[in-house]
Design a protein that fits this description.
With 464 residues, the protein is an alpha/beta fold. The chain is 40% helix and 13% strand. The longest helix has 20 residues. The structure holds pyridoxal-5'-phosphate (PLP).
């Protein structure tokens, strides 16, 4: 699409670059030394030794000149900062939720919401819980249940909305459990755990209807709400050509409120919020907010952070931006496809997922193929992705056995407005070079395995 494009379909970055941050290409011997020192775990590599960092799209966005200018307008009053009112106005206007509680990031909003709504032993139903959401449900002694359509976990299905709820399973669950046992229903848009796959508006409306029939609150985990809206406009009958704002509003209209990580679709490096429709719920949530995050007009953030978030929420709705954003993920996916590199199809909104099982079919699961592939990509081209496979899945707390997930993936998450297409071409070239020598790649084994969240601190040794 880029090379040779001369007409309507030609796509280039819808911004020019005003500030630059140098990045350095290390040498292969340097990377070999660093990898060994890091115990073959890229979480231990200093960012300055990474050439293209695709570890996450969270908090890694480049802010605009307008956002940086807004940082100078921070009103650092303890209570009633003008930037708080500005953020609240923006959320009201875009999403239609009247009450807004800023939080230090998305999980802060989860902490406040679940402390308000979730009693021990109750269920939370989600298309697929994100890690921190599940952890917060469990922290409150709740039970997290995932009810996405089966296509969500099928790497070959080209279902346009792989993040949708399975409505039959949702209905069945609610028929089989008393109303009081379900604290709330949440829809994660886009569905991060399923690879940034979108949820359709038809599905959100159906969930809303089911939720209100049973009198159960329905919330959005809205981290990537704008990317989700873009997919709805592109793929859902009746929404082609409609303004993104209208789609976003239709999504929000389905819900009683949302949790939001500003580190995703608010284009900031830190921040989040909880938004609510119900004034009584807001009153109750504010009590917890004071305890965990701070007075509800700052919520663990500086006034300048609130301003940057408000401005980011406006900018993310720009249609040219979204076309570039989703287009860039597709561009990298297309380069992989052309080289025969196995990826999850269709690509979602924020990352390309390489299928390590098909990339390194000669490695058994205990040889940690996805972890081995992340190491090879770093050694080859200084590219940092992240393992989403056996290492991340950990062990069953009851049996102590490894949990083998269906998929062994390397996620290449693309930060927003940070890298150019040329950088992505480097990533694709790195993948191709590793692909060409894939048969010689050896697996890894744990040399140190911590008891919890092992992927962050584990160390490995090469096999063979
Ligand atoms: C990132 C994320 C969160 C948590 O947000 P943080 O800002 O990292 O605390 C929750 N849900 C989803 C879907 C996310 O992607």
């Amino acid at each position: 699409m880029v090379a040779g494009g001369s007409g309507e379909d030609f796509r280039a970055e819808p911004f020019r670059i005003k500030v630059v941050e140098p990045i350095r290409r290390t040498t292969r011997p340097e990377r070999e030394r660093l990898v060994e020192e890091a115990g073959y775990n890229l979480f231990h590599i200093p960012s300055e030794a990474v050439y293209i960092d695709l570890l996450t799209d969270s908090g890694t966005s480049a802010m605009s000149d307008r956002q940086w200018a807004g940082m100078m307008l921070g009103d650092e009053a303890y209570a009633g900062s003008r930037n708080y009112y500005r953020l609240r106005e923006t959320v009201r206007e875009i999403m239609g939720f009247d009450h807004v509680i800023p939080t230090h990031q998305g999980r802060g909003a989860e902490h406040v919401l679940f402390s308000t709504l979730l009693e021990p032993g109750q269920y939370v139903l989600n298309n697929m819980h994100f890690d921190t959401t599940r952890a917060h449900v469990q922290h409150r002694r709740g039970i997290a249940v995932d009810l996405a359509v089966p296509e969500a976990s099928d790497p070959c299905s080209c279902h346009p909305f792989k993040g949708d709820f399975d409505l039959d399973r949702l209905q069945t669950f609610l028929a089989e459990h008393p109303r009081e046992s379900v604290a709330l229903i949440m829809a994660t848009v886009t569905c991060n755990t399923a690879g940034g796959q979108p949820v359709s508006l038809g599905n959100l409306k159906a969930v809303k209807e089911i939720a209100s029939e049973h009198g159960i609150p329905f919330f959005l985990d809205a981290c990537r709400f704008a990317e989700n809206a873009y997919f709805i406009r592109e793929r859902e009958p009746g929404w082609a050509g409609r303004p993104i704002r209208e789609v976003v509003r239709a999504m929000a209209d389905c819900a009683d409120g949302c949790t939001m990580s500003g580190k995703k679709d608010a284009l900031v490096n830190i921040g989040g919020f909880l938004a609510l429709r119900d004034p009584e719920l807001f009153r109750r949530a504010s009590v917890w907010a004071v305890l965990f995050e701070g007075f509800p007009t700052y919520g663990g953030l500086a006034g300048r952070d609130l301003e940057a978030m408000a401005r980011g929420l406006e900018e993310v709705l720009d249609e040219e931006y979204l076309e570039y954003r989703v287009g860039q993920v597709r561009y990298l996916a297309g380069l992989c496809r052309a080289a025969g590199i196995p990826i999850i199809e269709p690509p979602g909104g924020h990352a390309v997922y390489v299928d390590a099982k098909r990339f390194l079919p000669h490695l058994g699961r205990d040889e940690l193929p996805a972890q081995a592939l992340t190491v090879e990509l770093y050694l080859e081209g200084g590219v940092r992705g992240v393992e989403i496979g056996t290492v991340l899945a950990g062990r069953d707390p009851a049996t102590g056995e490894n949990v083998y997930p269906e998929l062994e993936l390397v996620r290449l998450a693309i930060p927003r407005r940070v890298y150019t297409d040329r950088h992505l071409e480097w990533v694709a070239l790195t993948l191709r070079r590793v692909w060409e020598r894939r048969e010689g790649i050896k697996g890894l084994a744990f040399s140190y395995e911590p008891p919890v969240l092992r992927h962050f601190t584990a160390r490995f040794r090469p096999l063979g």
